[in-house]
Structures
1.
Amino acid sequence: MGALATVDADKRDVIVSRNPLTGAVLGELRESTAVEIRDAVSRARGAQGAWGKLSVKERCSRVARFRDAVVARAEELCDLISAETGKTPAEALSMEVMVIADLATYFIKRAPKILAPESISLHLLKNRGSYLHFQPRGVVGIISPWNFPFGIATGEVIMALLAGNGVVLKPSEVTPLIALKTKELYDASGMPTELFQVVPGRGPAGAALIDSGIDYCIFTGSTATGKKVGAACGERLIPVALELGGKAPAIVCADADLDRTAKALVWGAFANQGQVCVSVERVYAHQAVHDELVQKICAEVDKLRPNDDTGSMTWERQTEIVEERIASAVAAGAKVRTGGKRRGTGLAFAPTVLTECRQDMDVMRKEIFGPVMPIMKVRDEEEAMTLANDSQLGLMGYVFTADRQKGKRLAEKLETGTAMVNDCLLTFGAPETPWGGVKQSGVGVTHSAHGLRDLCQSRHVNYDRIALKKELWWYPYSDKVYKQTLKMMRWIFR
Ligand code: NDP
């Protein structure tokens, strides 16, 4: 692949990790070369042989030591996550470290059952039996983004290990130190060192990883890069899960509890400075409650304390995109009700509420990935639903209503991988629920029993429960058998 040339040893570049709040350099490291990445995959494969042969229960008890190391060194992790991403320590703990401690514990307890052979009852061939058994895929390549550099990547690493795989992780160039810290904790917990490797690098390093003989790929990132990754995996017939961009709509019905809704939307739009793939990115508010809702949302935003509640954005380029989206919305007639600009000279951005938005504005159609909540007044719930589904993206959607049944009905109509009623964001932290999008938000799921099984090859065994001397459909064919089969078919499908 052409991309590999850019990570040749003599040309490789230095990656500098900076604190986005202060600009201070946190560390410098060299980009991995294509040769190093291939070597990492081959070493992970070497270690996977023995690891994959352990019982699932044994793997669980060993991965538990890694989980224990994460829990024991949680403050150190939170400090680094906060320094490298700019998020508050509270968010580093609740949205990343705690999520991983819980996900690990959940799957450590349940993986033996989820990955146990599953029998299939055959509806016709009663003399035979079938079952599925779940075998490790080999080496899983994980390519991850910078917004939850610990919470996303480490969950995938843990699940892949429990499924019996080796893992090679290519973290985002924006947040490489967290991945290296994860590896440090992993090594310190006594897990087989070679089994899990980290290969820091930029985009071409991700491309090189796909070209290094991996057996499965989990990619989390933008839809644009996801398409390239999907194509590269398709060319090599590598199965892939693509967790891509979002443009989560929130429908606020006329009967919604506006105090709760305002608080939920403010958290849903501004947590992690809006750099969440399922952030509330557009609100459709029923005309009967629109004005009061806007008032309550702005009052909630006023209460947010810079640095305690809201941290900093992580990446200069993303901050510029946010500025572009706001400027184009304002030029098209949107009103800034609060925020609209950076706080100070760094990347911290004021939580921004826009009203008088229209569906044709970029701010309502393209991913923002920053702390901006565009609000549009709608005639009724039907119009809200039509507009909510008028999107290429379908990761997450929200409905706010006092009527639970109506909430579920509307949630089912949302064309999104997950729809929540009366809350936001939360289900990433519920490891038993599937995480994945529809439309251009992705392919496949991570988390949940399905996500764990996807990290295995599902293989089918069919065997004879009762051995007959001869089957009806074997040679020699004859008129007699033809007639018997016809009669039998007519009787079965009568
Ligand atoms: P990118 O798509 O820019 O990058 C994602 C990862 O892919 C990074 O590690 C990146 O490396 C790497 N990469 C870049 N080019 C290639 C390539 N050609 N081949 C292989 N890998 C490559 O996304 P961001 O990091 O900017 O993340 C933000 C996006 O991620 C948003 O769209 C957001 O919605 C989405 N996202 C989706 C989630 C989900 O679960 N659905 C969760 C979180 C985020 P590098 O950074 O070094 O360039």
2.
Amino acid sequence: MNRTDAFVERAAKQAESPAENHAAPQQPEAAIGVALPHESAALHVSGEATYTDDIAELQGTLHAALGLSRHAHARIVSMDLDAVKKAPGVIAVLTAEDIPGENNCGPVLHDDPILAVNEVLYLGQPVFAVIAESHELARRAAALAKSDDVIRYEPLNAILTPADAKAAKQFVLPPLHLKRGDPDAKIAAAPNRIRGTFEVGGQEQFYLEGQVAYAVPKEMDGMLVYSSTQHPSEMQQVVAHMLDWPAHNVVCECRRMGGGFGGKESQSALFACVASLAAKLLRRPVKLRADRDDDFMITGKRHDAIYEYEAGFDDNGRILGARVEIALRAGYSADLSGAVATRAVCHFDNAYYLSDVDIVALCCKTNTQSNTAFRGFGGPQGALVMEVMLDSIARQLNHDPLDVRLANYYGIAERDTTPYGQRVEDNIIAALTDDLLDSSDYRARRAAIAEFNAKSPVLKRGLAFSPVKFGISFNVPFLNQAGALVHVYKDGSVLVNHGGTEMGQGLNTKVAQVVANEFGLPLSRVRVSATDTSKIANTSATAASTGSDLNGKAAEAAARTIRARLAELVAKQLGGNAGDVRFANGEVTVNGGAMPFDQLVGAAYLARVQLWSDGFYATPKVHWDAKTLTGHPFYYFAYGAAVSEVVIDTLTGEWKLLRADVLHDAGQSINPAIDLGQVEGGFIQGMGWLTTEELWWSRDGRLMTHAPSTYKIPAVNDTPAAFHVRLYQNPNAEPTVFRSKAVGEPPLLLPFSVFLAIRDAIAAAVPSAQHAPMLRAPATPEAILDALDALHAQSASEPASAQGTSKEATTSDTNA
Ligand code: MTE
Ligand code: LUZ
Ligand code: MOS
């Protein structure tokens, strides 16, 4: 037995003894509901897993690197690429003029040039591509883009921040506006009001495997593109379009990504296109792998946002009317910003009923990277400001923020319709909250922390609870479709292909479990192959957390078709009804008789029964009116909640997460080990967004935080010593695959509780302050110290003055 097998065996043994809180599977014979290890776990830890850059290179392979713009906004006056062409090892230098088809890789609008023409719109934009003998030589030559002799620019006025873009009315798409009721009148008539501004930073996806594509030319104008992408079908389309070819000339394949997190939903395209262009022109395989700094400089991130909000509320903190404007930094092009902004609008409510509400979302056009999908896809940006508002409301009323949250929860009957018109029919947030408050001992710890803070002058503790309600489905209804192909070979082994992509989230494991369960086979009999556009056509991105919902159902459908054919045959041979045939434990049983699965498959082959099938799934119920921003965009909601406790050092601004309790609704989990991993990972990743990860552009629009040395993602020592994560047992009200729920994105919103706990600790440091702390996100030590300073200033001088705090760096709540 080799090391890999030993690992798998050990992991499987561990999985057999169900850990605390793991669902007892409802169908005990099935591979469903069992905490099986990730299909590639052993390969991940041993380093054997093949990522795109690990694919054995064909003889003659060349390497590409990109020459990037040096200005945030400038006209290209002239280009003289001779020096680049003459650099050691350079085979060719390509510009936009070399593109035979359309010079565009935008997913929705055609505003994303692959290589810049005439004008550059952000600092870091690719202007030319160098193709060289080696990766290193290509990069050295591409670095000549920094020389004035190579590209001469005439700088133009650059707009760098969402605030400036908003002032200049520069948007990549028209503003979105959703209004229900009469919020102005409700706010005016309310006994209490808050009004304020808030800001949250962006976030780099920081997939451990960077953007990479390897293009291999094939006969008759064919191209095979290995791409690290969440969206192989779109890569196929944009490459074909760029080469002016029909789509059937191009195959895109992806076995796995080393993370995508939304960053490879649309923005893998530039890399796939440049590698393919070079491969086509030079008739040699070409690989383009961006190094980390280039990846940071070129690709878009989570949208940062600035907010203006206002709310009126009663004496219990229940919101009577609310208004918000969310100004998102879209960057230089539209990319997916329209759908991101729509999701922000549809998550402002988070878990709360808002009878009278006005929500505006702006996609601000700035001369920076084109921001894109990132886990949560605008949902976190929408819900965060609501949680900040509720925190401020509670502090103004001197209530525990928890109680204000409970007072605003969606309820039954009158209080169950979202601002966009969808009824919340599967609401379990109240019961889930009770469970978590109990297990986390929230009320008792609140009192203990007050006691601690009274005695501790420098270190202050904070505690916060926050809930999540997250809508599941692509908010563009037609994207909610998927296909799968299942092959049963003559020996009874099964190969599954589906349109989803594996990025570490465990999709292939779950789909394999579903198929194994249909045939009553152990998981070892089912293999999932690489995603390949020549197997499943016209797929959607693996995104919106829908991977297993969509592809699990499609694969289930394909397996059921084959199973029905087998059942018919075995019923003929053993007697009985096809409908009574059972597939379990590697056997097929009916009418008191049994036959091993493999034997039945062999017999079916000889009887000329088709042993492979396709399967298709389209999510029911979803519809959306993009004009009125109303409809039923989500098939269902996923819920969760967290309680976090932090300690801050009021002299240095340092902080630590001491304990986090998380309860998350993954429906009836197909694989509790994988789902717990998603919840833990999402929590820590969201915590990074709100605390340590700070993107910072210089005055001339250069992103200065473009490597791990200056951009701090959480590490294992940032996870709390006490991290209690549980799955909430709650079969999906909708008939999803085994009544599971999507789990990829929603947990990213759970660490709102960390940010709010830091706010709580800051408030505890200045008990005499009238107002809530003005804490911006990310809550870096600098931001924490700024918030403390502002609070001290406020409590010292009434009325509150903004003195000593920079205007854009504060969150200000004022009594309206
Ligand atoms: N988990 C890992 N390990 N790596 C990833 O890149 N991406 C997240 C989430 N979890 C991601 C991840 C995002 S942004 C989404 S939309 C979902 O996984 C996509 O996969 P799913 O739909 O199969 O859950
Ligand atoms: N909608 C959505 C989308 O809700 N999530 C996504 O990831 C997405 N991607 C593209 C278009 N719409
Ligand atoms: Mo995820 S942001 O939908 O790729």
